[in-house]
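INPUT
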Amino acid sequence: MTRIESPIVEVDGETPADAARRGRKPAESYVLEEQVGFLMRRAQQRHIAIFQRIMGEDGPTPTQFAAMAKLGGGEDISQNQLGRMTAMDPATIKGVIARLAERGLVERRPDPDDQRRVRVRLTPAGLEAMPGLTEKARAITAATLSPLSREEAERLLALLARLD
Amino acid sequence: MTRIESPIVEVDGETPADAARRGRKPAESYVLEEQVGFLMRRAQQRHIAIFQRIMGEDGPTPTQFAAMAKLGGGEDISQNQLGRMTAMDPATIKGVIARLAERGLVERRPDPDDQRRVRVRLTPAGLEAMPGLTEKARAITAATLSPLSREEAERLLALLARLD
DNA sequence: GCCACCTTGTTTGTATACTAACAATAATAA
DNA sequence: TTATTATTGTTAGTATACAAACAAGGTGGC
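OUTPUT
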């Protein structure tokens, strides 16, 4: 029963890939660990853990910081538009902005020119927090990519950018 | 006010990268769209959309299928162990298994040798569904990677695997 | 002006995901 | 054996995400 457990995946003495190659024909094999969706989910889990560690307990979440980064110059942006800029649908951005507003980092105002719109911007406190948060965000990116060389990291980013 | 909007990101006439290069020093720039976390989130969003399209309205979700794939041989696996094999923490795998059980695809039994454990396995209906689902899962992987050549896809998978 | 359509934002419901705290059971060390 | 520690599973709380249905405000065609 000797076994080596990697952090999460891998439980038995044999690799899933081994099991697949042993018992099944190649055309019928399906190895979860080799699927792009599984690998992306794992990589994201690690990234989010790094994000939370560096931003700290009451720091913003990844999506919260994404919204703040887009508001970083002090601009006024409508809620839905901000959602499009940060890849969040209207229902998601609503919650993100509500939580940032609860924490006093952004404020919402009705748009005088279009009564459907809610304009969102950083509060003075939010604006003041940005330099420190941006510094941490750079450290998060570096830590996430730290297993790779500079060239490998650039290659990864280029490939990921094409999957959209 | 002429503008071209790409699916989600990109709203103004200028690229965020342009804006950063124009007004700020390189050392101070932070371009959300170039960060690995943002790119991974976008790539995952697209992957999940493909997953749902191919699996269909009442097909399993990605995590539900991951659990089923690990149970695919008809084995008995404890709930927490199954979570480790599929990169889900105990609280997450509990919900996934509960929903699979509601749909009659898996069943839970107490472990006779360890009263703490819940053993999970596919039901006959779940076992019967696997070949068709696995076929679809392969199509999902192919569709997700379709913007890339074979070599590029392999390179991406290798790089992602090192981020864990 | 009127009507059809589009956009904006909200609400509800489902499904991940993780943290923290907890209870019950096993395994190990003293 | 007893005491400590570890493992297993649950519950509650927070935060994404998205679909679907909806209301209200703009916009363009006629």
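end of record. Chain B touches chain A through 54 residues (CB under 8 Å).
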